[in-house]
Amino acid sequence: MAVVREPSLEDAADLGRVHQQCWVETYAGLVPSEFWEHSTEARRIGMWERMLRRSDPKRRLVVAEGEGGIVGFALVGAALAREHPDAPPAVPLEVRMLYLTRSQHGSGIGQQLLDAVLFDGEAAQLWVAEQNGRAQAFYRRNGFVPDGIRDPDAHRGTDLAAIRMLRPASRVD
Predict the structure, then answer these.
(1) Which of 89, 78, 91 lies closest to 151 in space, CA to CA?
(2) Above 70 in pLDDT, residue 173?
(3) Residues near 108 by Cβ (< 8 Å), separated by ≥ 6?
(4) For the whole model, what pTM was predicted?
(5) What is the pLDDT of residues 55-80, one digit of tens each?
(6) At what angle do helices 41-53 and 12-27 cross, to 10 degrees?
């Protein structure tokens, strides 16, 4: 298993690298080659530097660290309408990101990440690429179901559509 911890600003470069690696591993055959001219490791590092400098009391962000460094991360926060303007949030909490390098798929680290940011019984929503069946299966195992909402333009500059999945609140004994 990996060590799951909160990241610091010093992790921005590793987060950007892993974020880009996960995108390439997952979507290289599904997006046009021009997409990668704008989706770069450098841009992702900058995004992580900005995010880690900002305080957000509603944000839950963790990284998974293996022997070679960061291998994945998860982010939960307030559901945002701006990313999917035609679909107002169904619940206040959203799993915004959960990425794990392909070499770690099936290791249990994805579950560790989700469990660290989304607590038992919490209702949440997330958006997942319609073409990413593996991720959808993972979320279904964790109580998420598609609610029928689809965003065909979720990732501008690609043919990737996203579907929304919801997990209802449940009573925890």
Answers:
(1) 89
(2) no
(3) 1
(4) 0.93
(5) 999 999 999 999 889 999 999 999 98
(6) 130
